C-alpha cells in the first residue's frame, strides 16, 4: 500500500489514550451534515489507527506525556477528513483526552453526565482525564471551509438526537461554543486569528494545502506558536488535514511534507514530535481502467466503501479536467511544479525492487560536489542494466541556526581567503563557519566505492572540489577504462551547455523508457532507504531551464534550499555508462589459477 507513516521510534499503540478516545467517539458522536447526517460513527481500522497514533503517550511528562505535538493526515477528497477532525475536537473539548496515570487493570472511566459511557482499562494502559478550560480553535482559509469541521461540532451539540446534546452547560452558537467547565470552541480565519494572545489547547488546520499565501502562512505560524503557552501542563497539539498540495506553491502542507522527509532521511535534529500519515494511489497509465481502479481503491482505503469509484474513473477520463489536479485530489498523489524536469509519476515508474547493486559489479560513478551551500553526492550506475544507487550524500542539516541570517563580511572574506565556495551576497547560506561538508568522509566514500566495485569511469563536476578531483585523477585516473577527456580522466564540467544538454537528454530518455532504474525507498531500510529518498527528492526538485543550446536544469531559484545535486551526479553516472557501452567495455575476467606440479 503506498503510504508514508512517520512515527516516533518508541511509538507503542498499546500505550495510547486513543483506544479510550475511539470508544468515546463511537459512543457519543454522530456524523455531521451530509448524506449520513445523524448516523452513528464507526471508525474503520484506518482511522482507528490514526486516532490511536495521535494520542500515543510515553513515560516522559513533557507535553503531558503526549508523544506528538502535531499530527498530519493526508487523504483524497471525500474521505471524511474534516468530519474526523470535528469529532476529535469534541473529544478534546469534553472527553478524557489527557494522561491521568497508568492503569493496573480493571479501573473504569464513566462519563460524568450519566449518559451511559463506561470504559474499563487494561493493565498498563494510560488512563484519561478531561482538560481544564479547553480552548479549541478550528482554522480555515475562509468561513465556508471552517464550517466543514465546525458544522460537525455544532451539529453534535445542538441536535437533540445526538448524545452530546444532553451534556449540561454547553452554549452552542454559530460563531462560538462555550463549554460547561469554562473554555470554548471557536471557528477562525486568517482575518480573525491574527491575535497573538490565544490560550488554545488544541488546533485544527483543515486543508492546509490552501495555506499558500503570506497571510495564511503567517496565520499558521501565529496560532501554532500560541499552543506553547499551555504546552507542558495542558498537552497542547494541533491537527493538519489536507489533500495533496500543488508542488511549488510553498503551502504549509508542502512544508510539513518537507519536514517529514527530513525526519525520514535522518536530517532532523532533536526529538521529532510530528505524526505524519500520507496515503495515496499510484498508476502510470491513466487509460488503464483496471490499474486506475486499483490505485483509487488504494488511495481511499476504508473510504472506498462509500465512494463512487466508477464516478471517479469518469472524472479522470473527462478531457475537460486537468489530469494533474485529478491525481492530486483523487489519488492524493504528489504533483510536480509546472516547470518540473521530471514528474513523480515518471520517476516512480522506474523503480525496481528486484534490483540492487552488488559487490564487484561493473559500474560507472558520478560526482557533484559543494562545500557549504548545496549538497555533495556520489552515485553509482551499473553498466549492464543501468541500475542507479546514491552511495552517499552530504547535506547541511536544515535545523542549523543562521540558515536565513546574513553572512558577516568577516566570514565571507575569510571563506574567500580559504578558496571556499563562500557566500558572496547577503541572503545565501550563512553557516560556513559552523558547517561544511566533511571532505575526508567524501574521499573515504570514493575510496570505498573503488574497492567495492569494478569502476570503469568516474565523471566528476570539479567545481568547489577541484583539489580532491585532482587527487582522484592521480590515484584512480590510470585505472579508468573510460576517461572524461585524454588529459583529465575524471573532470566533467557541467557548465558546458552543449555537453550538458546532451547528457540530460540521455538521462531523461533512459528514465522514461526504463533503461535505467533505482531501488525504491520503501523496499530498503536504514541509511540506504534515506539515500533513496534523497535521490528522489533531488530529482523532483529539478526545474527545466530552456537555453539556446537546448534544455538545461537548475534549482527553482539560485538561493533555494531545494537541492538537485544527487540527480546531477546520477546524470554524470549515466553519461559515463553510455560512453562505456559505446566503447564496448566488459567486465575483466579473473585470471585462471594454474596448478603447479611439485617435484
CATH class of the largest domain reads Alpha Beta
Using DSSP, what is the number of strands? Answer: 20
CATH superfamily of the largest domain: P-loop containing nucleotide triphosphate hydrolases
Structural domain count: 3
Separation of the first and last Cα atoms: 67 Å
Strand order of the largest sheet: 1-13-2-12-11-7-10-9-8
Q: Classify the fold: give the CATH topology of the largest domain.
A: Rossmann fold
Fraction of residues in helices? 25-40%
Write the layout of secondary structure elements.
Blueprint: E1 3-6, H1 18-28, H2 45-54, E2 70-74, H3 81-94, E3 98-102, E4 108-110, E5 118-120, E6 126-129, E7 135-139, H4 143-158, E8 171-172, E9 177-178, E10 184-188, E11 202-206, H5 214-226, H6 231-234, E12 237-242, H7 252-264, E13 274-279, H8 289-300, H9 309-317, H10 323-331, H11 344-349, E14 362-368, E15 375-382, E16 387-395, H12 409-417, H13 439-452, E17 454-461, H14 466-476, H15 497-512, E18 517-518, H16 526-541, E19 543-547, E20 550-554, H17 565-582
Parallel strand pairs: 2-12, 2-13, 7-10, 7-11, 11-12, 14-17, 16-18
Antiparallel strand pairs: 1-13, 3-6, 4-5, 8-9, 9-10, 14-15, 15-16, 19-20
Amino acid at each position: 500500500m503506498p503510504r508514508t507513516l512517520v512515527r516516533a521510534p518508541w511509538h507503542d499503540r498499546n500505550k495510547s489514550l486513543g483506544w479510550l478516545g475511539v470508544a468515546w467517539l463511537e459512543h457519543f458522536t454522530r456524523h455531521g451534515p451530509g448524506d449520513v447526517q445523524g448516523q452513528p460513527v464507526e471508525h474503520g481500522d484506518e482511522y482507528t489507527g490514526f486516532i490511536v497514533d495521535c494520542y500515543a503517550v510515553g513515560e516522559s511528562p513533557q507535553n503531558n506525556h503526549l508523544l506528538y505535538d502535531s499530527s498530519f493526515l493526508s487523504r483524497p477528497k471525500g474521505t471524511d477528513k474534516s468530519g474526523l477532525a470535528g469529532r476529535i475536537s469534541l473529544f478534546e473539548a469534553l472527553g478524557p483526552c489527557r494522561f491521568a496515570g497508568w492503569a493496573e487493570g480493571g479501573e473504569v472511566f464513566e462519563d460524568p453526565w450519566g449518559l451511559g459511557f463506561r470504559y474499563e482499562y487494561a493493565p498498563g494502559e494510560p488512563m484519561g482525564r478531561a482538560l481544564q478550560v479547553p480552548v479549541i480553535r478550528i482554522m480555515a482559509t475562509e468561513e465556508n471551509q471552517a464550517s466543514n469541521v465546525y458544522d460537525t461540532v455544532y451539529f453534535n451539540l445542538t441536535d437533540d438526537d445526538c448524545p452530546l446534546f444532553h451534556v449540561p452547560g454547553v452554549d452552542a452558537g454559530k460563531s462560538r461554543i462555550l463549554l460547561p467547565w469554562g473554555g470554548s470552541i471557536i471557528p477562525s480565519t486568517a482575518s480573525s486569528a491574527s491575535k497573538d494572545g490565544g490560550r488554545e489547547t488544541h488546533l485544527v488546520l483543515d486543508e492546509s494545502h490552501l495555506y499558500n499565501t503570506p497571510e495564511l502562512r503567517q496565520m499558521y505560524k501565529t496560532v501554532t506558536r500560541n499552543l506553547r503557552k499551555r504546552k507542558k501542563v495542558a498537552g497542547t497539539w494541533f491537527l493538519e488535514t489536507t489533500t495533496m498540495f500543488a508542488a511549488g506553491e510553498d503551502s504549509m502542507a508542502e512544508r510539513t511534507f518537507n519536514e517529514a522527509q527530513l525526519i525520514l532521511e535522518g536530517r532532523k535534529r532533536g526529538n521529532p514530535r510530528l505524526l505524519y500519515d500520507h496515503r495515496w494511489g499510484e498508476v502510470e497509465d491513466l487509460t488503464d481502467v483496471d490499474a486506475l481502479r486499483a490505485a483509487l481503491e488504494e488511495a481511499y482505503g476504508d473510504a472506498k466503501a462509500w465512494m463512487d469509484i466508477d464516478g471517479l474513473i469518469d472524472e479522470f477520463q473527462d478531457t475537460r479536467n486537468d489530469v494533474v489536479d485529478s491525481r492530486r485530489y483523487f489519488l492524493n498523489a504528489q504533483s510536480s511544479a509546472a516547470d518540473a524536469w521530471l514528474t513523480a509519476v515518471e520517476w516512480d515508474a522506474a523503480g525496481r525492487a528486484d534490483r540492487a547493486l552488488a559487490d564487484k559489479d561493473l559500474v560507472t560513478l558520478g560526482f557533484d560536489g559543494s562545500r557549504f551551500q548545496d549538497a555533495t553526492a556520489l552515485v553509482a550506475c551499473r553498466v549492464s542494466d543501468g541500475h542507479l544507487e546514491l552511495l552517499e550524500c552530504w547535506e547541511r542539516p536544515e535545523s542549523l541556526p543562521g540558515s536565513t541570517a546574513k553572512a558577516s563580511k568577516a566570514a565571507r572574506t575569510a571563506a574567500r581567503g580559504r578558496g571556499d565556495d563562500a557566500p558572496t551576497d547577503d541572503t545565501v547560506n550563512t553557516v560556513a563557519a559552523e558547517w561544511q561538508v566533511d571532505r575526508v568522509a567524501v574521499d573515504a566514500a570514493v575510496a570505498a566505492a573503488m574497492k567495492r566495485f569494478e569502476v570503469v569511469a568516474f565523471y566528476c563536476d570539479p567545481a568547489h572540489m577541484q583539489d580532491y578531483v585532482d587527487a582522484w585523477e592521480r590515484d584512480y585516473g590510470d585505472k579508468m577504462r573510460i576517461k572524461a577527456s585524454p588529459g583529465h580522466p575524471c573532470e566533467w564540467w557541467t557548465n558546458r551547455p552543449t555537453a550538458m544538454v546532451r547528457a540530460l537528454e540521455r538521462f531523461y530518455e533512459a528514465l522514461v523508457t526504463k533503461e535505467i532504474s533505482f531501488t525504491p525507498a520503501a523496499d530498503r531500510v536504514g541509511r540506504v532507504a534515506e539515500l533513496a529518498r534523497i535521490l528522489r527528492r533531488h530529482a523532483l526538485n529539478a526545474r527545466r531551464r530552456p537555453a539556446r543550446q537546448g534544455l538545461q536544469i537548475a534549482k527553482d531559484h539560485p538561493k533555494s534550499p531545494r537541492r538537485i545535486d544527487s540527480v546531477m551526479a546520477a546524470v554524470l553516472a549515466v553519461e559515463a555508462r553510455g560512453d562505456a557501452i559505446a566503447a564496448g567495455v566488459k567486465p575483466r575476467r579473473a585470471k585462471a589459477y594454474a596448478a603447479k606440479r611439485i617435484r
